[in-house]
């Protein structure tokens, strides 16, 4: 439990501040935001997102460009922060395509991935313009070909590869096993030949995404090297250079006690060897190498703030019952992919540091035992009216949650930038 407390403290010390014991985001205190916008709410710090983007871009400079994976947080105001930094967008639906366009991303800077693209979404991006469509199965290939033919266009496509087990890594592995994502590596040559036979498709790239929530620099670097070798194989097969090699995202952030942040210095140290690989491969010499992280850019910049409605003590356990819960933040409840449920870092908005901290179960208002935001968060004594904040909440939070469950209201979403708060979604 001390480790859980220290993670929250470390994150606050690194990215936020307190004034008079009150937690602040971007120079604005959360108590004031709660009075202005009501609770619960999400708040995102634009400056922290820019800082994360610039730090990663600098670490991989000369090797890769950094785009933004819209699925992590699809609000146009968020996408625009990265678009203004020069990022393109990776999308997984027609609605995300519309959000990227609304944020000012040029169509040619948008990559469209996802294993079950609908006919309507394919039609939408083919007619509106798209940088690349990443093909994931044979039926999708046929539907993209048909849409391109209807519009008299030749569409740029990439092959998404489900890599072999040597490319596995990250907390959620997406390769090396049977998967709905992409074509198995074993059938890569046949898929390349099939696409090359389609006059309305132009094979320009390869997409490899081996895992997500990766905190090991060595694992990520090894996966990127694996992707470059596969891309070189494709380029040799088609006897021309590739335009794009999308090495995916997968960069993780610390959520739990014992997690260590991704070491960008170690990433930076591994870049020269990857650049050497590219230099000796004619098929990659002019390719645009792309990383498209999501949570790494937005996760640490977001907090979920809820107000305590009641406290109770039950059989030796302290409970704080709040107005927020799993219907807004399923990931923090442990019900989005966790097998062994562990607590996100949670802090009291008002914490002057000198009070005794004890384990609290922070639960939401829903009539289900699954509605738990923290099981043993070390917090000062709480009372009705107090505020708690769930850190690392800028990615895969509201849009990954069952917001209609039990018909509670949606939370506000607030963007803080240069000392100003803006309501971006309710």
Automatic annotation (TrEMBL):
<comment type="similarity">
    <text>Belongs to the Orn/Lys/Arg decarboxylase class-II family.</text>
</comment>
<dbReference type="InterPro" id="IPR022643">
    <property type="entry name" value="De-COase2_C"/>
</dbReference>
<dbReference type="Pfam" id="PF02784">
    <property type="entry name" value="Orn_Arg_deC_N"/>
</dbReference>
<keyword id="KW-0456">Lyase</keyword>
<dbReference type="InterPro" id="IPR022657">
    <property type="entry name" value="De-COase2_CS"/>
</dbReference>
<feature type="domain" description="Orn/DAP/Arg decarboxylase 2 C-terminal">
    <location>
        <begin position="41"/>
        <end position="394"/>
    </location>
</feature>
<keyword id="KW-0663">Pyridoxal phosphate</keyword>
<feature type="domain" description="Orn/DAP/Arg decarboxylase 2 N-terminal">
    <location>
        <begin position="49"/>
        <end position="298"/>
    </location>
</feature>
<protein>
    <submittedName>
        <fullName>Type III PLP-dependent enzyme</fullName>
    </submittedName>
</protein>
<dbReference type="InterPro" id="IPR002986">
    <property type="entry name" value="DAP_deCOOHase_LysA"/>
</dbReference>
<dbReference type="InterPro" id="IPR009006">
    <property type="entry name" value="Ala_racemase/Decarboxylase_C"/>
</dbReference>
<dbReference type="InterPro" id="IPR022644">
    <property type="entry name" value="De-COase2_N"/>
</dbReference>
<dbReference type="Pfam" id="PF00278">
    <property type="entry name" value="Orn_DAP_Arg_deC"/>
</dbReference>
<keyword id="KW-0210">Decarboxylase</keyword>
<dbReference type="InterPro" id="IPR000183">
    <property type="entry name" value="Orn/DAP/Arg_de-COase"/>
</dbReference>
<dbReference type="InterPro" id="IPR029066">
    <property type="entry name" value="PLP-binding_barrel"/>
</dbReference>
């Amino acid at each position: 439990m001390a480790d859980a407390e220290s993670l929250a403290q470390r994150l606050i010390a690194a990215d936020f501040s307190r004034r008079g014991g009150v937690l602040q985001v971007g120079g604005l205190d959360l108590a004031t935001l709660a009075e202005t916008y009501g609770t619960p709410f999400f708040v995102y710090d634009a400056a922290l997102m820019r800082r994360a983007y610039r730090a990663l871009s600098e670490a991989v400079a000369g090797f890769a460009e950094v785009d933004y994976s819209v699925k992590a947080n699809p609000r146009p105001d968020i996408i625009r922060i990265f678009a203004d930094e020069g990022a393109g967008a990776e999308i997984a639906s027609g609605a995300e395509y519309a959000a990227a366009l609304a944020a000012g991303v040029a169509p040619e800077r948008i990559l469209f991935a996802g294993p079950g693209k609908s006919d309507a979404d394919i039609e939408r991006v083919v007619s509106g313009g798209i940088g690349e469509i990443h093909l994931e199965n044979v039926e999708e290939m046929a539907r993209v070909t048909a849409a391109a033919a209807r519009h008299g266009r030749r569409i740029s496509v990439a092959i998404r590869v489900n890599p072999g087990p040597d490319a596995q890594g990250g907390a959620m592995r997406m390769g090396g096993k049977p998967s709905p994502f992409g074509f198995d590596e074993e059938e890569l040559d046949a898929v390349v030949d099939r696409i090359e036979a389609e006059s309305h498709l132009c094979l320009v790239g390869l997409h490899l995404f081996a895992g997500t929530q990766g905190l090991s620099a060595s694992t990520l670097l090894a996966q990127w090297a694996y992707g470059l070798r596969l891309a070189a194989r494709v380029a040799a097969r088609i006897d021309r250079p590739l335009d794009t090699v999308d090495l995916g995202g997968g960069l993780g952030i610390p959520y739990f006690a014992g997690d260590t942040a991704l070491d960008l210095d170690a990433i930076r140290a591994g870049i020269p060897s990857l650049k050497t690989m590219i230099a000796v491969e004619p098929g990659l010499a002019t390719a645009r190498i792309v990383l498209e992280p999501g949570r790494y850019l937005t996760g640490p910049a977001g907090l979920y703030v809820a107000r305590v409605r009641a406290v109770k003590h039950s059989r030796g356990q302290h409970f704080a019952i709040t107005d927020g819960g799993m219907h807004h933040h399923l990931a923090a409840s442990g019900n989005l992919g966790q097998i062994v449920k562990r607590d996100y870092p949670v802090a009291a908005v008002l914490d002057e540091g000198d009070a005794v901290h004890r384990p609290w179960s922070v639960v939401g208002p829903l009539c289900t035992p699954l509605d738990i935001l923290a099981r043993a968060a070390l917090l000062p004594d709480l009372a009705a009216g107090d505020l708690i904040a769930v850190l690392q909440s800028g990615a895969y939070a509201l849009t990954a949650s069952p917001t209609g469950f039990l018909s509670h209201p949606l939370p506000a979403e607030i963007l803080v930038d240069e000392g100003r708060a803006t309501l971006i979604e309710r």
